[in-house]
Amino acid sequence: MSDLCDPTPYDALLLLSFGGPEGPDDVVPFLENVTRGRGIPTERLKEVGQHYYLFGGVSPINAQNRALLAALEADFAAHGLDIPVRWGNRNWAPYLTDTLRDLVKDGHRRIAVLVTSAYASYSGCRQYRENLADALAELAAEGLAVPRVDKLRHYFNDPGFVRPMVDGVLRSLAELPAEVRAGARLAFTTHSIPVAAADSSGPPDGHGDGGAYVRQHLDVARLIVEAVRRETGVEHPWQLVYQSRSGAPHIPWLEPDICDHLEELHAAGAPAAVMVPIGFVSDHMEVLYDLDTEAVARAAQLGLPVRRSATVGTDPRFIAAVRELVLERAESERGVAPERCALGSLGPSHDLCPIGCCPARAPRPAAAGVDSPYA
């Protein structure tokens, strides 16, 4: 095997994602998985799940992960990267533990992990590490070999993640009527999280606006705004906004909400807006419902022209970036200093999450970090 595509010590890549229902009968059981331990009544879950029923009870995320899996397999094969790619979810089949069990039974012992969340936060990083630790503990309890799992670093500022989004914004601007295009505002959207979780996201010595979660999103937004300015000659006014809040109303979450922001833009006389879902890897339910359905409907009521730009999905540049992240981490594990690609002011993220990174309310074991019980 060429050194350029040597994955040693890794013998598999695990695609780790959230999961989603595949039909109407799956919606409530899926939401029970998502909210386990919170004591939410079934009737309330049925209300929460109404947006899934609008799409036949099917979340698009599973089909998108199948497409991502196929694209990664094709890219790896084309470039001589000879490791299998498998997929496991936190909340729905194929479940993470089942996928890891199959990998172990097939003889795999050193597994790189790609999480479909690009930024630092408890739900987007630490919780997945806890899921990995839970799965490894279950394998150990079954008497199976416990593999070493290494989560690939955050890729929010990788060129293969940022540049496809730049192109998406340019296409959306071009789709707006010519008379409103130059004045269009850019609304960069991501999942709202509790303010306390945002403030504590990233390493414990994090600093800046809202901790690592907000800081990373702001850096990506600035990169896109500058790239659009270079391409078009126009520097569009912009703001980072939030969507998909799901918590109790008395707990502060990141604001403003995208729909409230659209109303503010309209009241301020903005001629148009482009919604840019930088917080999402693919067009899953938060994009299709919260943006393409709710936010677009609100804009229509206001008479505000809007477009929603594309997520990276299976863009070949993103697929290539994943391959490079695997090879970068493999080199690092072999003691070679790899070239780490990162745009913006923050630089490449850490390989191993330090102690106290993106802390949970109650401490739990987490794999793939400095404090991993399965190093």
Number of helices: 13
**Strand runs, count:** 8
Low-confidence stretches: none
Give the CATH class of the largest domain: Alpha Beta
CATH architecture of the largest domain: 3-Layer(aba) Sandwich
Rounded to the nearest angstrom, the distance between the terminal CA atoms is 27 Å
What is the average per-residue confidence, as pLDDT, rounded to a whole number? 95
Q: What proportion of the residues form beta strands (DSSP E)?
A: 5-15%
Major sheet strand order: 2-1-3-4
Instruction: Compute the number of structural domains.
Output: 2
At the fold tier of CATH, the topology name of the largest domain is Rossmann fold
Largest sheet: 4 strands, parallel
The arrangement of helices and strands along the chain is: EHHHHEHEHEHHEHHEHEHEH
Overview of this protein structure:
- With 375 residues, this protein is of the alpha/beta class.
- The chain folds into two domains: 3-155 and 314-333, Rossmann fold (3-Layer(aba) Sandwich); 159-308, Rossmann fold (3-Layer(aba) Sandwich), CATH 3.40.50.
- The chain has 13 helices and eight strands.
- The protein has helices spanning 27-34, 42-48, 50-53, 61-78, 96-105, 122-141, 159-175, 178-181, 195-199, 211-232, 258-267, 285-302, 316-333, and strands at residues 12-17, 85-89, 110-115, 148-151, 185-191, 238-243, 273-276, 306-308.
- α7 (159-175) packs across α10 (211-232), α7 (159-175) packs antiparallel against α13 (316-333) and α11 (258-267) packs parallel to α12 (285-302).
- The longest helix is centred in the middle third of the chain and has 22 residues, at 211-232.
- The relative contact order is 0.17.
